[in-house]
Design goal:
Aspartate Aminotransferase, domain 1, about 400 residues, three-stranded antiparallel sheet, about 15% strand, Aspartate Aminotransferase, domain 2, alpha/beta, seven-stranded mixed sheet, about 40% helix, 13 helices, binds pyridoxal-5'-phosphate
Length: about 400
């Protein structure tokens, strides 16, 4: 009996794309094997993080890197690092941030439900810009000067959510940060592909960048990458690692933790809740290597093939039309958009796919336009005909 069956849990087909509620995606066998291999021997976790730092630095162009339990966890660590620096007293106090630099500036249009990560570190968010879509004024979204005007004595960081439509451009924001010596944290959780984005945000001047390990990167679902300035990554590490150690017996890897910069040894910090084990670190590094080795083009073709299997099988089905978006952009995730001809057809079909066996989750975000969207990242090649057959049966 399979593990899930023994637990009485049904497996599903995830055609929605990486989503935590759907347990993320499928790991390649090499990634799963790396996790099993890592589980067979113990190591000094700081030493393993230092090795991860070297690999992540190479992949991202950053000075240093780190692994935590997700991009959100990395953003919490990033915020804590910007507030506490290398001061063990400040680290110990978080999330009580009274008296510290504890304000994080954020463009209002970039606010999102993941910013709990910033607030749970003890920071408060100072919003700037009002992209007024109601009256038609405020057409320019936020501008660099608005960020600059919000900088004060309490500013710990500027937070930037990277996306195709994010305003102002990151380079303009990091220029403001540089001028005032305020670090810029970039949430790039879902910005892969294209692969070039691994290096892009660092090269545009970001001080810290977070990527999700469990999305397109294909690592363990509970993993994320933090990369950036060495001193900030060191602060993140010190607030994350188990530091129940005696000072005279403690010999952390110098590339990750430079003891000379510390006036005392921190206790467990706020990042203790963001733990990543050796298995996650090993899995993530393997996934990162495979991601780089495969490259955008081959990855895009692999996804496209899956969608085309479905599209071909649906070609003969009446009451619907299909289109692949992103077919010619190898730096994108292609998606199969199914448009229903009958009114309310998409919502009914989505529900039927969910209720069948196995339950199939597609992306419902365009159902108001009578469309359902299939994302190829999180299901297997063998699932493609199953998805197509179920759609065909459910509409006829
Ligand atoms: C997915 C996502 C996150 C969270 O990433 P996890 O690795 O699941 O913690 C944060 N921010 C944005 C914009 C995301 O899309």
């Amino acid at each position: 009996m399979s593990l899930y069956a023994a637990l009485g849990v049904k497996t599903i087909i995830n055609a929605k794309g990486p989503a935590t509620r759907l347990s993320g995606g499928l790991m390649r066998p090499e990634v799963a094997e790396a996790m099993v291999e890592a589980s067979r021997a113990c190591v000094d976790i700081a030493e393993l993080q230092a090795a991860a730092s070297r690999e992540i630095a190479k992949a991202t162009g950053a000075e240093a890197g780190y692994v935590a339990s997700g991009a959100s966890a990395c953003l919490l660590l990033a915020t804590a690092a910007c507030m506490a620096g290398l001061d063990p007293g400040r680290m110990a106090r978080l999330p009580d941030s009274r008296g510290l630099k504890n304000e994080v500036i954020m463009v209002r249009s970039q606010r999102n439900l993941y910013d709990h990560a910033i607030r749970s570190a003890g920071a408060s968010i100072v919003e700037v810009g009002l992209p007024d879509r109601y009256s038609g004024a405020g057409v320019r979204d936020a501008e660099p000067w608005e960020i600059e005007a919000a900088i004060g004595e309490r500013t710990a960081a500027i937070f930037y959510v990277a996306d195709a439509q994010s305003e102002p451009p990151l380079k303009a924001v990091t220029a403001v940060g540089r001028r005032h010596r305020i670090p810029v944290i970039v949430d790039a959780a879902a910005q892969l592909p294209p692969q070039a984005n691994l290096k892009r945000f660092i090269s545009e001047g970001a001080d810290l960048v977070a990527f999700s390990g469990g999305k397109v990167l294909g690592g363990p679902q509970a993993s994320g990458i933090l990369c950036g300035r060495r001193d900030l990554v060191m602060s993140a590490a010190l607030q994350h690692l188990d530091l129940d150690v005696y000072e005279d017996l403690w010999a952390p890897p110098k590339t990750l933790i430079d003891r000379r910069k510390l006036k005392g040894l921190p206790q467990h910090g706020i990042g203790r809740t963001c733990k990543a084990g050796k298995e996650e670190i090993a899995g993530l590094l393997t996934a990162l290597r495979l991601f780089i080795k495969e490259g955008d083009k081959a990855r895009h073709e692999r996804w496209l093939k899956r969608l085309k299997v479905i599209q071909k099988k649906l070609a003969k089905v009446s009451k619907l039309a299909t289109e692949i978006e992103g077919e010619s952009d190898s730096g994108s995730v292609p998606q199969l958009v199914v448009t229903m001809s009958a009114k309310g057809g998409a919502s009914a079909l989505i529900k039927r796919l969910l209720d069948g066996t196995p339950s199939i989750h597609v992306d419902p975000f365009r159902r108001a336009r009578n469309q359902l969207v299939i994302n190829p990242v999180c299901f297997a090649d063998d699932d493609a005909p199953v998805v197509a057959d179920r759609i065909a049966r459910s509409v006829s």
